[in-house]
Design goal:
The protein is α+β, with helices and mostly antiparallel strands. Helices cover 28% and strands 25% of the residues. The protein has a single domain, classed as Bira Bifunctional Protein, Domain 2 (BirA Bifunctional Protein, domain 2). A hairpin with a 2-residue loop joins strand 2 and strand 3. It is globular.
């Protein structure tokens, strides 16, 4: 089960993959962007072998990553727990992983970062990881 709710930053980049077999590299780019974002807020996070997403201390899932590709175009993406009420996860088996613990940036740093601050960092890190340029909006 995937949960999306208040306090999560959800990013669903729609990208045409040059080669549909590049899906693994694309998922790793999404994970890298989240890892760099967590680091910007003082949280050491990493990947966990065999399990998609981003983890703290290989025990607590900070972000879920799930991608679908159809005709070479990605849909879905990632959900980063910023200040999510983690009690929601008590009612489910997160990502189909029994016993999976879930965390948030707020829990890890002891205060809620603003969604705008996290979104700005994540957008920049996604652009960097995917080799894109952010365009200014009026």
């Amino acid at each position: 089960i995937t949960f999306h709710g208040p306090g999560q930053l959800v990013a669903y980049p729609i990208v045409e993959l040059a080669d549909p077999l590049d899906l693994r590299r694309y998922v790793r780019a999404l994970e890298s962007a989240v890892i760099a974002t967590a680091d910007a807020f003082g949280v050491a996070a990493d990947r966990r072998d065999g399990l998609p997403g981003v983890w703290v201390d290989a025990q607590r899932k900070l972000a879920a990553v799930g991608v679908r590709v159809r005709r070479g175009v990605t849909t879905h993406g990632l959900a980063l727990n910023v200040s999510t009420d983690l009690a929601w996860f008590d009612e489910m088996v997160p990502c189909g992983i029994p016993g999976c613990q879930v965390t948030s940036l707020e829990r890890e740093i002891g205060r809620p970062p603003t969604m705008a601050d996290v979104a700005g960092v994540l957008a920049a890190e996604l652009a960097k990881a995917l080799g894109l340029r952010l365009a200014a909006t009026p």
